[in-house]
């Protein structure tokens, strides 16, 4: 018995190099992707099968996550290796968990940029400046959305118009700042557990045709979403709408058959620029609150290179213009933007840190929320 005990460590030491070599080899060839739905999991499994069939070096595994936060935790502790995420989640993954990016999506148009957030107003509204929005009426697509909340509130905090104070109560600070406004969902229990978010943030909301669901976090509120925020300004209930640069073009020329949209003309509206000036609707490239970066692939720092190399092989085989499995399409899976955005043209390597991908203006907007309890 005693002899065995003494022998065991020696035998174990001999095995150790073998164990760690096979451990490293295994880690080096497998990339496990964190997926969030049945549809995404199926696309991931099909990709894995097609990659194996083509003898592409490396093995893709698909790991099911409960939500983005869970995927971040899994990547951090090694239960998963990678997942594509929205800009806001990339910031949390980087700042709070030290994760980095292997690759980012490039959409048609400007590299790495998904869209611009702009401030839109009626041309007839004079004396309106983004530098003096106090007591103005504002229309937001939704609570805690990038377009309707993170970017505009981040801008107003950065320019010291909104002061959050030590309470870090953003809804209250925003309610004190603006006049009658519409932030759909601001009074939902999910965003307002104590029921004391300011009522004025629902006063420019209109609900459905029967005046029900006022301020609802859904399309039943007719001022919900980007089209709804635009409508809110078009109908003169708000002074300014925070929308995407594409929102106006998505709702003109009969693309939206609702009467408010049919009555709308390009000449009726203008952009408000962050320096206090104004511009035409097509001048969003120099008159925007933020350029929102496209989604990118979150990984552990030490996996940046390895995961990029694997993705490079996958997109060479299954990127745009190839037959068979299509990496940037979700057709046939009953969902959209699975694994990657459907608008992706190709993936590009991210060599710098996650903040280089997010860009200085967008990072500044997010920094405004670094209040107690952010991480
Ligand atoms: C390849 O992908 C297609 C979908 O594009 C799927 O039907 C097929 O089963 C996949 N092949 C393998 C070997 O997994
Ligand atoms: C890793 O994190 C996930 C998500 O929090 C958790 O479910 C899992 O048990 C963790 N695994 C390990 C090995 O710590
Ligand atoms: C943030 O505020 C500072 C000071 O007002 C300003 O110089 C800077 O341009 C602002 N940044 C952004 C991204 O708006």
Automatic annotation (TrEMBL):
SUPFAM superfamilies in UniProt: Periplasmic binding protein-like II
Keyword Protein biosynthesis (UniProt): no
A Pfam entry, by short name: Transferrin
Transmembrane regions: none
PROSITE patterns recorded: TRANSFERRIN_LIKE_4 (PS51408)
SMART domains listed in its UniProt record: TR_FER
Region forming the signal peptide: 1-23
GO BP terms: iron ion transport
Positions of the Transferrin-like domain: 31-371
Cellular location(s): Secreted
GO CC terms, sorted: early endosome; extracellular space; plasma membrane; recycling endosome
The keyword Secreted is assigned to this record: yes
InterPro entries: Transferrin-like_dom
Alphabetical UniProt keywords: Secreted, Signal
Record's function text: Transferrins are iron binding transport proteins which can bind two Fe(3+) ions in association with the binding of an anion, usually bicarbonate.
PANTHER family: OTOLITH MATRIX PROTEIN 1 (PTHR11485:SF49), TRANSFERRIN (PTHR11485)
Protein name: Serotransferrin
Organism: Scophthalmus maximus
Lineage: Eukaryota, Metazoa, Chordata, Craniata, Vertebrata
């Amino acid at each position: 018995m005693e002899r065995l005990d003494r022998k065991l460590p020696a035998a174990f030491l001999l095995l150790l190099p073998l164990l760690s070599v096979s451990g490293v080899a295994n880690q080096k060839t497998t990339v496990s992707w964190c997926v969030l739905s049945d549809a995404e999991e199926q696309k991931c499994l099909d990709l894995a099968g097609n990659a194996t069939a083509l003898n592409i070096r490396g093995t893709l595994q698909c790991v099911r996550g409960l939500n983005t936060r869970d995927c971040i935790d899994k990547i951090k502790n090694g239960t998963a290796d990678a997942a594509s995420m929205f800009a806001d989640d990339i910031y949390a993954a980087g700042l709070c968990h030290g994760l980095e990016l292997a690759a980012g999506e490039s959409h048609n148009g400007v590299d790495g940029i998904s869209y611009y957030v702009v401030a839109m107003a009626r041309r007839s509204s004079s004396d309106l400046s983004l530098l003096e929005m106090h007591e103005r009426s504002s229309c937001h697509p939704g609570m805690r959305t990038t377009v309707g909340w993170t970017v505009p509130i981040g801008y107003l905090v950065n320019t010291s118009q909104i002061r959050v104070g030590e309470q870090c109560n953003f809804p209250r600070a925003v309610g004190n700042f603006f006049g009658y406004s519409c932030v759909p969902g601001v009074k939902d229990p999910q965003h307002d557990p104590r029921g004391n978010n300011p009522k004025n943030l629902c006063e420019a909301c209109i609900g459905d045709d029967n005046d029900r669901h006022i301020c609802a976090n859904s399309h039943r509120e007719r001022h919900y979403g980007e089209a709804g925020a635009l409508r809110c300004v078009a109908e003169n209930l708000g002074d300014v709408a925070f929308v995407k640069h594409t929102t106006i073009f998505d709702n003109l020329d009969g693309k939206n058959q609702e009467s408010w949209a049919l009555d709308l003309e390009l000449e009726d509206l203008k952009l408000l620029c962050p320096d206090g000036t104004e511009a035409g609707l097509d001048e969003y490239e120099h008159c925007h609150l933020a350029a929102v970066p496209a989604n990118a692939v979150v990984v552990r720092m030490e996996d940046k290179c390895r995961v990029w190399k694997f993705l490079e092989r996958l997109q060479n085989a299954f990127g745009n213009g190839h037959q068979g499995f299509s990496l940037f399409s979700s057709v046939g899976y009953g969902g959209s933007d699975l694994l990657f955005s459907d608008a992706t043209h190709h993936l590009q390597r991210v060599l710098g840190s996650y903040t280089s991908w997010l860009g200085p203006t967008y990072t500044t907007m997010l920094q405004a929320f670094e209040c107690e309890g952010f991480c």
